[in-house]
Automatic annotation (TrEMBL):
GO terms for molecular function: ammonia-lyase activity. InterPro entries: Aromatic_Lyase, Fumarase/histidase_N, L-Aspartase-like. The keyword Ion transport does not apply. It comes from Rhizobium subbaraonis. The keyword Lyase applies. This is Histidine ammonia-lyase. It comes from the Bacteria. Transmembrane segments: none annotated. The lineage of its organism: Bacteria, Pseudomonadati, Pseudomonadota, Alphaproteobacteria, Hyphomicrobiales. Keywords: Lyase.
Length: 496
């Protein structure tokens, strides 16, 4: 198992790796930052300097002063009252992503939590003790991380070694004890953009993997269907300025090099349909969007989003009350990523439709040699169309949903966490669509004239698929083939 040392802010790639199971350890520099910030909080408490959530209530109760004797109670009560999410639990990887983002936030040294709190989060990650976090109920943050905090104080429940345990018992199993929260710690555990940022890192990692498979799927479909000469010629594509387009063009030229199928058909059409000839333009724009959103998420990981932030020194402590927990930037980025991912599924489904349609494919109807008796890929194309439609609905803006909470104290909401959660659903759908396209393109190769051979690079993918998944003859539920194809896609990168 790999290990990541938390020193400077995590990259989104490192955070996604921790979510998938890598260990996370604090560097000495990170430990020092965390400890210094805690010393400053203790000075704030001792000097009775007003600080939101330290010695005041929260939300609409921010002007209620909390005396020192009740500050531990305040921290605990914040966790209990904010653990209000509903619905089905998040998956293991999604919850671990949020936990890793919490560690990243605290390691900046501006939250003021104790070192032992951050060490407990790392211990839970490293021993795979995963809190049960219900998925719905956030307008931006608060509810999901409160469920994680419940386990840290011995309440709630967690999954450990396949068993669901009460929080205190789960901690005992990994050799840890529940925390008694001190001043500010309750607020810090529910505040900031850790939830949306952690989920965003997962979304980036998943789309980054899928764009490579999308290029492979597109190349396989194009080889079966395309006939325009020089479609992906380097000089032609260079007239449009786009790093993503250049990357896709390079990939397509590599996949399709020395294709006997394309050599035999070259020049039969003046122009291929847009779902074929615009692959670099569409896939490239999606890659460009991925790069832009990556920059936003990287900035978020490097930002202080806990409110209030701790500054100054123990002798001259400063409480900086701000609104950095409002995740408008990450919400807009996730809305944008949902649209980009949806478009990737849309163009894939259009290529799939051309593969199964005998009116345009030149292949047996629905990719079966026994039309009528066998339906082949006719209905699985309907499944892909359904997923495209669902993605279209999910691509509506979450950022603009609005709402008013906390008795007008929070009168603008940007819904960053819901925006990230719906991207993950979109990506699941896109993975299914691409798996179906690759299966159909592989079947199309098998139905080409017997003497026809595919390009060397697409042949490698074709052989990999056929090693696990035989030709489809309506002899088994086709969803089993889709699941098997997704397993291939998840087992590593595109084979070249």
């Amino acid at each position: 198992m790999s290990e990541i040392i938390m020193d400077q802010p995590l990259s989104w790639q490192s955070l996604a790796a921790v979510a998938e199971g890598a260990r996370l350890e604090l560097s000495e520099a990170a430990r020092a930052r965390i400890s210094t910030a805690r010393t400053i909080v203790e000075s704030i408490v001792a000097r009775n300097i007003r600080g939101y959530g330290i010695n005041t209530g929260v939300g609409a109760l921010c002007d209620v002063i909390i005396d020192r004797a009740n500050q531990q109670t305040l921290s605990r009560n914040i966790i209990m009252s904010h653990a209000c999410a509903v619905g089905e639990p998040l998956g293991r990887v999604e919850t671990r992503a949020i936990m890793a983002a919490m560690v990243n936030t605290f390691a900046h040294g501006r939250s003021g939590v104790r070192l032992e709190l951050v060490e407990l989060l790392c211990a839970m990650l490293n021993q795979d003790c995963v809190p049960v976090v219900r998925s719905k109920g956030s307008v931006g943050y608060l509810a999901h991380t409160a469920s994680i905090a419940l386990v840290m104080i011995g309440s709630g429940s967690a999954i450990y070694r396949g068993n669901r345990l009460q929080g205190a018992e789960a901690l005992k199993q990994i050799g840890c004890s529940p925390l008694l929260l001190e001043a500010k710690e309750g607020l810090s555990l529910v505040n900031g953009t850790s939830c949306s940022t952690g989920l965003a890192c997962l979304a980036l990692a998943r789309l980054r993997r899928l764009v490579d498979w999308a290029d492979a799927a597109a190349a396989m479909s194009y080889e079966n269907l395309g006939s325009q000469a020089g479609t992906f010629d380097r000089q032609t594509l260079s007239m449009r300025r786009s790093d993503g387009l250049d990357q896709v063009g390079d990939a397509l030229r590599t996949f399709l090099a020395d294709s006997p199928i394309l050599a035999a058909k070259a020049g039969r059409r003046t122009q291929d349909p847009l779902s074929l000839r615009a692959i670099p333009q569409v896939h490239g724009a999606i890659r460009d969007t991925l790069a832009q959103v990556s920059e936003v998420v990287s900035r978020e990981l490097s930002s202080i989003t806990d409110n209030p932030a701790i500054d100054g020194t123990p002798d001259e402590p400063i409480v900086r009350s701000e609104a950095h927990a409002v995740g408008a930037g990450i919400a807009l980025a996730m809305d944008n990523l949902a649209i980009a991912a949806s478009l990737l599924g849309t163009i894939s489904e259009r290529r799939l439709d051309r593969l199964v349609n005998p009116l345009v494919s030149g292949l047996p109807a629905f990719l079966t040699a026994d039309s009528g008796t066998c339906s082949g890929f006719q209905v699985i194309q309907c499944t892909a169309a359904s997923l495209v439609a669902e993605n279209r609905r999910l691509s509506s803006s979450a950022t603009l949903d609005g709402g008013i909470t906390a008795a007008l104290q929070e009168d603008i909401l940007t819904h960053a966490t819901p925006a990230a959660l719906k991207v993950l659903v979109v990506l699941e759908n896109v993975e299914d669509i691409l798996a179906i396209e690759i299966l159909a393109a592989t079947q199309a190769f098998d139905l080409q004239p017997e003497a026809t051979k595919s390009a060397p690079q697409t042949s490698i993918i074709r052989e990999r698929v056929r090693k696990e998944i035989p030709l489809y003859n309506d002899d088994r539920p086709i969803f089993e083939d889709v699941d098997a194809m997704k397993a291939i896609m998840n087992s590593g990168g595109v084979i070249r």
